[in-house]
């Protein structure tokens, strides 16, 4: 569904669109984490807030939550659509892509469960695409020692942890999604098409809320930021 507001026509020709994917069932978390408060905002609200700083947004949510989420964001002029997700992540991103106009030049995909990604990170991803990259992901160093599943040690200096938002030249992402094969993230899907993925520095606070302890960590970070402000 497309949200109606006075600025809709202007926003729909924005060159940058972000698909915020929040259609998971939160099985590992135990309840719907998107609605939980972290500071003054909900998890989803915080994720969307940073995304709107660079352009228009499509929110992909659970089928039964579309109307509720649509109403919640009805006054946010940059949230253009709220749509139901698919049975898989690929299906959910495809659902979001269906709402991005053909005029869009850059498409970002962001996990709704990463509420602490800053506006600066979003802008950095967009700037990298504007400077000629086809696909960009933010990454952070891995602090733990690593071993593969066979038990052999890995050199952690040679690996990084991948975050979102991930950014793409619009035509590159659309082309990759002509193939419905599942990957763990969009950059991997694009890379499978032979496109080089560039990396930029991510943010240590850009945690993904998967388990209850992650929510506690995010709330503590928010509290420290609000205390400073």
Describe the structure.
The structure is a single chain. It contains eight helices and twelve strands. The strands form three sheets. Strands 1, 4, 5, 6, 7, 10, 11 and 12 form an eight-stranded mixed beta sheet that branches. Strands 2-3 form a two-stranded antiparallel sheet. A two-stranded antiparallel ribbon has the order 8-9. Helices cover 31% and strands 22% of the residues. β2 and β3 (41-42) form a beta hairpin. It has helices at 8-11, 43-51, 66-72, 89-97, 119-130, 170-176, 186-191, 212-228, and strands spanning 16-22, 37-38, 41-42, 56-61, 79-84, 106-111, 135-141, 146-147, 153-154, 160-162, 166-169, 198-201. Residues 4-12 have low confidence and may be disordered. The protein is an alpha/beta fold and 229 residues long. The protein has one domain (8-228): Spore Coat Polysaccharide Biosynthesis Protein SpsA, Chain A, CATH 3.90.550.10.
For this entry, give a set of tags:
229 residues; alpha/beta; Spore Coat Polysaccharide Biosynthesis Protein SpsA, Chain A; eight-stranded mixed beta sheet; 8 helices
Task: Give a nutshell description of this structure.
The chain has 8 helices and 12 strands. The protein is of the alpha/beta class and 229 residues long. Strands 1, 4, 5, 6, 7, 10, 11 and 12 form an 8-stranded mixed beta sheet that branches.
């Amino acid at each position: 569904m497309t949200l109606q507001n006075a600025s809709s026509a202007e926003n729909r020709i924005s060159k940058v669109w972000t698909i915020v994917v929040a259609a998971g069932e939160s099985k590992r978390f135990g309840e719907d984490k998107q609605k939980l408060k972290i500071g003054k905002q909900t998890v989803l609200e915080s994720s969307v807030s940073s995304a709107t700083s660079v352009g228009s947004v499509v929110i992909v949510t659970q089928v039964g939550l579309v109307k509720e989420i649509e109403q919640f964001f009805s006054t946010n002029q940059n949230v253009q659509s709220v749509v139901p997700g698919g049975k898989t992540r690929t299906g959910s991103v495809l659902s979001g892509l269906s709402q991005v106009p053909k005029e869009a030049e850059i498409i970002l995909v962001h996990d709704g469960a990463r509420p602490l990604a800053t506006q600066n990170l979003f802008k950095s991803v967009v700037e990298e695409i504007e400077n000629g990259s086809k696909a960009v992901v933010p990454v952070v160093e891995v602090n733990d020692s690593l071993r593969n599943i066979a038990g052999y040690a890995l050199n952690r200096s040679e690996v990084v942890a991948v975050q979102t938002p991930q950014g793409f030249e619009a035509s590159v992402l659309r082309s990759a999604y002509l193939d419905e094969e599942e990957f763990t993230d969009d950059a991997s899907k694009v890379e499978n098409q032979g496109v080089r993925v560039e990396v930029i520095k991510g943010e240590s606070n850009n945690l993904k809320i998967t388990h209850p302890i992650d929510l506690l960590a995010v709330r503590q970070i928010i509290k420290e930021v609000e205390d400073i402000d």
